[in-house]
Design a protein that fits this description.
Length: 290
Amino acid sequence: MAIADDTLSFVRSSLQNEEKFMVSVCYILLFWAVCLVFILLSVSAPYGRYSRPGYGFQVPAKLAWFVQELPSFLVPVYLLLFTDCPRAGELKNLVAVGLFLLHYFHRTFIFPFLIKGGKPTPLVPFVMAFIFCLLNGYLQGGYLLRYADLEKNVSTVQFFAGACQGQGQGQTLKFPALAQPSHLCMGVFFVGMATNIYSDHILRSLRKEGEKGYKIPYGGMFEYVSGANFFGEAVEWSGFAIMCGTLPAAAFALFTVCNIGPRAYQHHRWYLEKFEDYPKNRKAIIPFIL
C-alpha cells in the first residue's frame, strides 16, 4: 500500500513539474517572440530568397521542409498513442489536437512535395526550425492532451491574471458563452488555413517546372497584401489560440506572428524595389493597414 501511495505521489509530482516546465518554456517563447521582431526587422532570416553563405551547407528545399516540420506531427501522435493523456477523452481537446495535426500533416506530407524550384535551406535555420517544431509539438500536444481544461469558460482578464501568477490551470482564455470560441474560432482557423494554402498555390503557379526567379503574385489575398500566405497563417493560429485558450497556444500564435510578420514586411519591401510596376496599394501583411 505504501509503495502504491509513493508511486502515485511521484506521478502527481512529475505531472506538476512537467506543467510548470511547459509554462516556463511558454514565457521564454513570449520573450523571444518580442526580441525576434526587432532582430528580423533588421536582419532577414537566411532562407528562401534571402538565403546567403555563412550558415552551413545547403539542405534541398523539399527535404528541409519535410524533416523540419515532421516533429510537430509525430510528437503529438506519439503522446496520444503511447503515453498517459488524462485529457485525451475530452472531445474539445481531441478536436484541438486534430486541428494542429491537420495543419502539420499538410505542412509535412503535402506542401514540401509541391515546391517548384525552391532554394535550398542553409543548415542553421533548418536546425533551428527542426528544434522549434519538436518543442512546439510537445508543448501543444502535451498541454492539450494532459492539462488543458477546454470546458472552462473564463474571461480574458482571468487569463492574463493566471498568466501573471504562473499557474497553469489558471491560464485558460475563453470568451463568454454568447460567442463560443469552439465554433467561431474553429471557423477562423479554417479560413486562415485555406488562405495560407491557396496563397501558396498562387506562388507555386508563378513558376513552371524547373523555372527560377520571382514574379508578382496576383489573386486571393495577394490583391491586398504582399505576404498573403503569412496573413493566412497568422489568422489560422490566432483562431487556434483563442479556441484553445491555453498559454502554449497563445505563445505559439504570438511567436508565429512575430516571426512571419517581419518576413512579410521584407517581402513587401523587396517587391517594391524589384518591380517598378508592383501595386502600390498593397500592404505588407494586414489589409489596408500595415
